[in-house]
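JOB MANIFEST
job_type = single_chain_structure
chain_count = 1
residues = 117
[input]
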Amino acid sequence: QVQLVESGGGLVQAGGSLRLSCAASGRILMISGMGWYRQAPGKQRELVASITGSERTNYADSVKGRFTISIDNAKNTLILQMNSLKPEDTAVYYCNIHIAVYGTDYWGKGTLVTVSS
């Protein structure tokens, strides 16, 4: 019933920007945190940015100052604004919702971001 759907990925030149969205549907309770992960070819999935209910945020060192994570509560949507994109940012980006009390994670299917030089 719970479903996360990412959108906004695509092909962009280095220095450009993209805005990723994660739309949540279904009944989701006791959310501990939300985040964006990415996985490049041949590499493990890594945390890019996260946000808590108190709207505290943290970012991977590689994206600090360039990416911004936010929540649109009215639209039940998690946002990742990506600016000054680099070829190293090329990856499939995944939306995640974590419920700590149950040790549960919900994942989207991912959206591909490709940054050309």
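[summary]
The chain has a mean pLDDT of 94.
The longest strand covers residues 91-99.
exit_status = 0
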